[in-house]
Amino acid sequence: GHLRSSILGETLCRLLEFCGHEVHRLNHVGDWGTQFGMLIEYMKEVNPGFMDGTGEIPDVSDLNAFYKAAKKRFDEDEEFKKKSQLNVVELQGGGVAARQAWQKICDVSRKSFDEIYTRLGVRALERGESYYNDMIAPLVEELKARGLCVESNGAMCIFCPKVDTVPLMAVKGDGGFGYDSTDLAAIYHRLFVMRADWLVYLTDLGQESHFFKIFDAAEQAGWHVPPITRVNHMGFGVVQGEDKKRFKTRSGETVKLSDLLDEAVFRAAEEIRNRVAQQTEAGQEAALTDEAAQKEAAEKLGIAAIRYFDMKQNRTSNYVFNYDKMLDPKGNSAVFLFYAYARIRAIQRKSGVDPSALNISDLRVDHPAERDLALKLLQFPDVIEAILDDLHLHRLCEYLWDLCNALTTFYTNCKVLGEEQQNSRLLLCEATRKVLKKSFDLLGWGFE
Q: 141, 205, 221, 270: most buried, per Cβ within 10 A?
């Protein structure tokens, strides 16, 4: 889930900025819910004195292991579960010890995420559930006064019959605030305080109904006023293993995103070494012969391969994660696209001609392969427009695959260097390079 929302979200932001929009990248982290009450309760068990100041806050540097231990207690002990839920109420109420423990957990989690986001090239402002906590109570009072929030079975609810019969709970029966409360405050803040005119929420498809109700409630409250404002839920499917179940390690553990990136980079390094060896053996020009350059390229290629493999899928579908397909130099992969780009750069170097010095009046499109490539290049703006309409980023990946295949056909049928049409064909190559480079930028690849 974190992989897909991060990759899809970053590319969407880049695309919107490319189209001239002012974009606020908000990372709505879950830093305020039941799981934190559970972690705080487990901290009490590990070191009971930390809550009253007689002991230190327990070490949570290995947050993954700490979370598993706490979750086991939460699932097996009903009393532990009840105390965890009460901790959430205390946390939301501003309890000093609870806030201190919560802050330590957030700091450890944030450090881990920052490292991953840096590797992925993802930029976002962290604005978690806690940011909206103080807004909820006055907002609920306002909605109650307007008759939009009513009592139902001890909870304060907003009914959204356009979506389904299950209401949003602005305030739970125990007086606490849950996801519904936070998301109501968040959409109010984004539409009414930030004055955003278009919101896009990226989560798994399982939360689609919830967000449709949030959007409906915002419309009932007058915060969301279509078509002046636009709100979209950009839902996505899950990443699966070869068994078509949620992607896990062989031992059944959830795969760490850092481990997944490391493996992709390792395999990319192997692909680069093999490629260089093949080029050298064939007497061809071999780039990346330096070990340090290979290492840097492997990091870029491995992560680009993961990003592309994820984005080329229809986002509403589940997909099977497969390293071999992801790094296939002949298949629909980032590797194939990179090699196509590298081929253009090699031709440009061998020509000795500065692309910026070429005269556009020299362009002639006579051969069918030239025409097909030129027409494919002209489709780029239409692809971008289509994505703005339906938010399906795989359209860009499909376009790049088709473009690079058209480029391959062009190479095969139209010799570039030393021909009468050299300058014209170099112009076609440069136009293709520019579209590829811009697309790589949109996909989040640092590649020259």
A: 221
